[in-house]
Write a structure and sequence with these properties.
alpha/beta; 12 strands; globular
Length: about 300
């Protein structure tokens, strides 16, 4: 069996949008959920890649429970570090390219300006450390065919996320307290899926150099700013969202105070980065509302 694309973590929020995009455009794509492929099992990974012979693998499978990783770092490392290494080794054997989806958590989160793709990494959480291990495994094993796409603040249909939560809160709470001292870039999974497809095609065409890319929306805001925009799009008073500090919501894993990323490498590879976050959220809103209605029926 031969295919062009193989997507791991295909039932997740990003994986679903990626498969939808590929199939809508007539691409040959195979999507594998965890039950289909456990990326922590090296033998199974090699057998799967050898059987499908993809030209591009996109790894959307990950341990994403940020707080749980603090108490279970070894388990998270098997998924986020060993899993990508197994995939990279299998791709090296068959000649496939690999796109590894990563995170802003690989940075310390204490910057004062957007992080460049080659900025020094310094993760402060177990989640960030394990995701950085996955990045390093891919880039070391596949220096000419390994791609890392860091993203952050993802939202979309078909999965739990901050935007979905705020849509739900608007109808049941008079006011909502939301953190206003963390800055980042809300990113729609549909937009990220689009860039992953473009990157994969450019990789196959030899026009996108291997390495690190930042897959986040343009602009920046705080969680409070994002929540207020959600309320505005719902026709509600944004003032009902009240600013709070991170100390009001203590978590086991430290959250980056500053997660704004630069997007220079897209342009260097002849591609535009993702559009501004407000524009994307407005475009996404009808689908998000429809999904919300469906989940509450």
């Amino acid at each position: 069996m031969t295919t062009t694309w193989l997507i791991t973590g295909a039932t997740g929020m990003l994986g679903r949008d990626l498969l939808t995009r590929l199939r809508r455009e007539g691409e040959e794509a195979v999507g594998l959920a965890h039950d289909d492929l456990d990326i922590t099992d090296a033998g199974t990974v090699h057998d799967t890649i050898d059987a499908h012979r993809p030209r591009i693998v996109v790894n959307c499978a990950a341990w994403t429970a940020v707080d749980d990783a603090e108490a279970h770092e070894a388990d998270a490392l098997r998924v986020n570090g060993d899993g990508p290494r197994h995939l990279a080794e299998a791709c090296a054997k068959t000649g496939a390219g690999l796109i590894q989806v990563s995170t802003d958590y690989v940075f310390a989160g204490d910057g004062t300006g957007p992080y460049a793709e080659d900025a020094p990494t310094a993760p402060r959480s177990a989640y960030g450390r394990t995701k950085l291990a996955g990045e390093q495994a891919v880039l070391t094993t596949l220096p000419d065919a390994g791609y890392v796409v860091r993203t952050a603040w993802l939202y979309g249909a078909g999965g739990g996320n901050f935007v979905d939560t705020m849509i739900g809160f608007e109808s049941v709470r008079e006011t909502v307290d939301v953190v206003d001292d963390q800055r980042g870039q809300p990113t729609w999974t549909v937009d990220l899926a689009d860039r992953l497809v473009r990157l994969g095609r450019a990789a196959l065409a030899g026009t996108a150099p291997a390495g690190v890319y930042h897959g986040t929306s343009g602009g920046e805001t705080t969680w409070c700013g994002l929540a207020r925009e959600v309320f505005r799009l719902l026709g509600a008073d944004p003032g009902r969202v009240r600013p709070a500090t991170s100390t009001a919501f203590p978590r086991p894993a430290p959250r980056p105070a500053y997660s704004v990323l630069r997007h220079d490498r897209w342009r260097q590879a002849g591609m535009e980065p993702i559009r501004p976050w407000r524009e994307a959220l407005q475009a996404a809103f009808p689908a998000l509302l429809e999904e919300k209605k469906g989940s509450t029926r």
